[in-house]
Specification:
- This protein has 429 residues and is α/β, with parallel strands linked by helices.
- It folds into two domains: 151 residues, Aspartate Aminotransferase, domain 1; 256 residues, Type I PLP-dependent aspartate aminotransferase-like (Major domain) (Aspartate Aminotransferase, domain 2), CATH 3.40.640.10.
- The protein is built from 13 helices and 16 strands.
- It has a seven-stranded mixed beta sheet with strand order 4-12-11-10-7-5-6, sandwiched between helices. It has a four-stranded mixed beta sheet with strand order 1-2-3-15.
- The chain starts with a helix and ends with a helix.
- Bound molecules: pyridoxal-5'-phosphate.
- Pyridoxal-5'-phosphate binds next to helix 5.
Length: 429
């Protein structure tokens, strides 16, 4: 193997990292291995992981049961095309997903990533209205500060400013943006919160295929937790105006917010739902778009009578195996109590930040802890401080946040939140 310095030179010369300049002066750390909640860097340092590799590694790294399931599946069949062929991992995973997601969802479309699953959801919605004889319904309503992915369809429903829509203005469909509900999780929702949606439905409803939202928790667009009542009212309004409802549960799915799916907080069921991220326990890239019978029957009975999408690696057997194994681990664990434990630990550890003059707000829900600062952080200096403190935390903008693997023990959780408080309090006021 080449020397580490040579490898890192190739990395800095030729590899893009997410949302970065190729020639970036931000540090990247070489991870040698990962186990449980710890990332081991090549310089020997071990970091407690506060990010779960962007919401996904819920059972920790190097998980014995998932490893074993994958090894077995690999010796049997790593991949096979899904056109005209099928396999048990995909069928069993489908049964499992339909068992744990809200009742009327009864069919699954597999894809490789969250962004693609959102594009698929949007295409399904347009297909549906075409089949219903309403071909003009092709636009989408979306919340400001939303994040739904980076492909063109998904990007078009992301927040227009953070999504840099002006840069892609002529290449991207123009969607209808509405105000983010200001009613917080647990609060009542007022007319002021819902009026933006009402207005958009009246003005554009005839041309709108669906409303797409991240239920309860807006993730990468601002880590904002809003009232379940908003979703209830939004669902009723969409129904009245003949607009479908798409829930993007890619970040919130699989117990992160304290319910298996965030829509359960509101007791609202979408017409189309996307899952990804934690679906495979962070092992492989897989996402799924689920729909109701009404959607898929209508599409099947319309023209052209098929749904026009089909990824090469659709329902990859290894990915389906990892997903099945991860979901079983979750369901067999005492996840409800465990998420409550983590929520309590985050509250104990992070609420004291409220006293700091650098801090504007602290929000905690399930296994998500967010400290919103008054000023954006300097990534170049803060990330190395976290690494020196022995934790992996990667803030963005004004947000320093964590969503650790569910297996994190109380001592490690305290270590993580202590490091956050220490570093935040040392920031310039
Ligand atoms: C991460 C994310 C996506 C995009 O998923 P990728 O797998 O990165 O394409 C979409 N929606 C939400 C809510 C996400 O958090």
């Amino acid at each position: 193997m080449q020397k580490l310095d040579d490898l890192l030179k190739i990395d800095s010369d030729a590899i893009w990292h997410p949302y970065s300049a190729l020639d970036s002066d931000l540090p990247v750390y070489h991870v040698e291995s990962a186990n449980g909640v710890r990332l081991k860097l090549s310089d020997g340092r071990k970091l407690i992981d506060g990010m779960a590799s962007w919401w996904s590694v819920i059972h920790g790294y190097n998980q014995p049961e998932i490893n074993e399931a994958l090894e077995k599946q690999m010796k049997n069949m790593a991949h096979v095309m899904f056109g005209g062929l099928t396999h048990t991992p995909a069928i069993e995973l489908t049964q499992q997903l339909l068992d744990i997601t809200p009742e009327p969802l009864d069919a699954v479309f597999y894809s490789d990533s969250g962004s693609v699953s959102v594009d698929v959801a949007m295409k399904l919605a347009i297909h549906y209205w075409q089949a219903k004889g309403k071909p003009k319904k092709q636009r989408f309503i979306s919340l400001r500060h939303g994040y739904h992915g980076d492909t063109f369809g998904a990007m078009s429903v992301c927040d227009p400013e953070t999504g840099m829509h002006s840069l892609f203005a002529d290449a991207m469909p123009k969607q209808v943006f509405i105000e983010q509900p200001q009613c917080r999780f647990g609060e009542v929702c007022t007319e002021k919160d819902i009026s933006s949606l009402k207005q958009a439905l009246i003005e554009y409803g005839d041309n709108v295929a669906a409303l797409i939202v991240e239920p309860i928790v807006q993730g990468a667009g601002g880590m904002w937790f809003y009232s379940a009542e908003y979703l209830k009212q939004a669902s009723e309004l969409c129904h009245e105006h003949n607009v479908l409802l798409i829930f993007d549960e890619i970040a919130t799915g699989f117990a992160r917010t304290g319910k298996l799916f965030a829509c359960e907080h509101a007791d609202v069921v979408p017409d189309i739902m996307c899952v990804g991220k934690a679906l495979t326990g962070g092992y492989l890239s897989l996402a799924a778009t689920l729909t109701t019978k009404d959607i898929h029957e209508t599409i099947d009975n319309g023209k052209p009578g098929v749904f026009l999408h089909g990824p090469t690696f659709m329902a990859n057997p290894l990915a389906c195996t990892a997903a099945l194994s991860s979901i079983r681990l979750l369901l067999d664990s005492n996840w409800q109590e465990n998420i409550n434990r983590i929520q309590y630990g985050l509250e104990q550890g992070l609420f004291p930040c409220m006293e700091l003059s650098q801090v504007n707000d602290v929000r905690i829900l399930g296994a998500i802890g967010v400290v919103e600062l008054n000023e954006p952080v300097d990534m170049k200096s803060i990330v190395p401080q976290f690494v020196d403190a022995g934790v992996w935390v990667r803030p963005f903008g004004k947000l320093v946040y964590v969503m650790p693997p569910y297996i994190i023990e109380n001592d490690d959780l305290t270590f993580l939140t202590d490091a956050m408080v220490k570093i935040i309090s040392s920031l310039q006021k």
